[in-house]
Design goal:
Shape: globular
Number of helices: 3
Order of helices and strands: HHEEH
Strand order of the largest sheet: 1-2
Strand content: 5-15%
Helix content: 40-55%
Radius of gyration: 16 Å
Length: 86
């Protein structure tokens, strides 16, 4: 019984996510985690140039809940971990 609980423990994934958040926030320039639902359109840029995107705005009272944003930011980190870290 105890072995089954340790095999599915999310602590390592959460630790890596926290480390990635730290790396992104302390890099120069800082890398912000912008969820996909906030991006309206993107414009191609050269390598090393800052991104150029137009962001979606929501009318007052209709913006998504902060827990939804946290979920979407975690999704970005999970995709990054699957493609780069693993």
């Amino acid at each position: 019984m105890l072995k089954k609980g340790t095999l599915r423990c999310p602590l390592a994934g959460n630790y890596i996510s926290d480390q990635l958040r730290l790396i992104f926030s302390t890099s120069q320039p800082p890398i912000s985690l912008t969820p996909h639902y906030l991006i309206n359109s993107k414009t191609p840029v050269d390598a090393g140039a800052p991104s150029q995107a137009s962001y979606r705005t929501f009318p007052a009272g209709t913006e998504p809940h902060s827990s939804f944003r946290a979920l979407q930011e975690e999704r970005i980190l999970t995709e990054f971990k699957e493609s780069v870290v693993a």
